[in-house]
Amino acid sequence: MADNIPKTPKLDELEKGRWPSFVKEIKMAAQKSPMAVDLLGQLEQSYDEKIGYWKHGGIVGVMGYGGGVIGRYSNLPEKYPNISHFHTMRINQPAGWFYKTEALRKVCDIWEKHGSGLTNMHGSTGDIILLGTKTDELEPTFAELQKIDFDIGGSGSDLRTPSCCCGMARCEWACYDTMALTHDLTMHYQDELHRPAFPYKFKFKMSGCPNDCVASIARADMSVIGTWRDDIQVDPDAVREYADKGMNIESDVVDNCPAKCMSWDGKELHIDNSFCVRCMHCINVMPKALRPGKDRGATVLIGSKAPIIEGALLSSVFLPFVKVEPPYTEIKDLVDKIWDVWSEEGKNRERVGEFIQRVGLGNFLDAIELDPVPEMVAHPRENPYVFYEEYFEEDEGEEEEES
Amino acid sequence: MAKTVDEIAEAMFGMVKDAQGLKKLKPMDLTKAMVELYGGEGVDKKFCKLAIKQLIDSGRCVYTYFGGSYIELPHSEGAAN
Ligand code: HEM
Ligand code: HEM
Ligand code: SF4
Ligand code: SF4
Q1: Any residues with CB less than 8 A from the CB of A171 and at least 6 apart, and which?
Q2: pLDDT value of residue A403
């Protein structure tokens, strides 16, 4: 088989340098996998001709599921018969991406048997991405994965596979258990994950603190970001130790505080916590001296997305602070209300953030029965979307009298 | 008279069959139509969810994806040719 590997001078350029190379990996897979051989051929041809040769499918999947399989076909099936079908399977990753090597080996064995052997660990959705198989292999792959307790993830207009940072498993900043919440939401919303019923995709991403390692604020329809509502914990001796060892606390910490709420007199670090915006900067710079407060929970934000149909959006605050504890009733109640309104009123392919922009945040809050709070305002005097009922009522009364 | 899940699934199947090749229907299109027709007889969104589940799990309809997700009769993939 190794003799079949096509000459790929253009792809070979991508093997140079000291970083990982997908070309190197595909070539390694090509020692065993005819699909990988043809993949190299088609890719090189695409690089030569500057033309992509993939076609999108829309029908393939496994019985009962509406998501998780993404149909792809080669546009040059005569020349590259082994990749005439090249479907992707998204596999729901364990929360926080923790595996035993044993589990990974099993997944890889299944994929070498039923697919190209190529994987992408992990996709930007968070899932394990199994790249390239034929329609006939989808059900057998799924059956074998189920036997080792793996399930297919989301795609299409459904709940996408929930995803989180490693949180309390490895990170001292975690303000809530991201992995527990992610697992709970995944199990609770199985129907929504596998049976697309929304106007478009919906993503949950859980970050344990405002460092937001899974970038939930930029790419989740619901971002759950850990925070605290009491004071930053300060160890004054450790602060002085940083200073003694040469840290310029004035310029590296105090001057970079976006809230300008810190001061340093050379001996004591003072924080006016009522102005702190929980940005994590000072804590990141002096991890031994500072840590998040003890009264911890999360801020729930809604509406971010990358540009596809409309431009990019960041999430906006909906719940400034919630305690994140099982059974997560407050979060689930909000989710259910949002889905109810958006599923019914959202246009086809309209993300919830776009929907909110179209109907107005005030109307949306009304529909999901959430009271406006100051934290929802992006900048003072910039979001005049909250109107007080009493003014409306006066106007309506006058109109009625006239007619 | 109260509707059964089977009856609603059957009515949804009829809609999908009539629309095949003409218009792609989303799950919410089916749901809204059923609630409009039979809402008086206790058919709500939850009920429709069960009917769609039945429709899909029986294999009579499949989910498809063309930008968004739809419910259609099973058919062979155009892109596969
Ligand atoms: C010495 C004279 C003035 C001072 C010190 C002054 C100061 C200010 C300040 C501090 C603000 C608030 C900015 C903010 O919202 O963050 C403001 C806003 C404003 N001022 Fe003045 N102002 C002066 C004269 C005027 C005059 C003469 C006018 C109009 C004829 C005016 C019209 C406005 C308007 C419309 C705003 C609102 C801008 C916005 O919300 O974006 N100001 N001014
Ligand atoms: C038909 C006439 C006017 C309209 C439609 C109007 C509309 C507005 C609007 C929409 C705002 C922003 C409110 C907010 O973002 O919270 C504003 C703010 C303001 N307007 Fe007017 N305005 C008018 C006349 C005037 C006049 C004649 C003056 C001064 C002589 C004036 C002074 C200001 C000031 C100082 C603010 C800032 C208030 C604040 O941010 O606290 N406006 N106006
Ligand atoms: S988001 Fe915060 S808690 Fe999660 S891994 Fe990053 S720094 Fe740690
Ligand atoms: S967390 Fe950010 S805003 Fe708060 S005190 Fe530290 S640097 Fe300032």
Answers
A1: A165, A208, A209
A2: 39
- Which atom in ligand 2 lies closest to the alpha carbon of residue A384? 15
CATH of the domain at B17: 1.10.10.10
* Residue span of the structural domain in which B62 resides: 5-80
Q: Please tell me the distance from the alpha carbon of residue A391 to that of residue A269, in angstroms, as a whole number.
A: 47
Across A182-186, average pLDDT = 98
User: Above 90 in pLDDT, residue B6?
Assistant: yes
- Cβ–ligand 2 distance for A380 under 6 Å, the answer no
Centre of ligand 1 from the C-alpha of residue A381, in Å: 13
Residue B45: partners with Cβ closer than 8 Å, 6 or more residues away: A340, B31, B35
Q: Is the pLDDT of residue A395 over 70?
A: no
* Cα dist from A141 to A58, A119, A245, A303, A360, whole Å: 19, 14, 57, 35, 45
Q: Inspect the interface and report whether the beta carbons of A199 and B49 lie closer than 8 Å.
A: no
Higher pLDDT, A242 or B67: A242
For the segment A266-303, what is each residue's pLDDT rounded down to a tens digit? 999 999 999 999 999 999 999 999 999 999 999 999 99
Domain count within chain B: 1
CA A288 to chain centre: 29
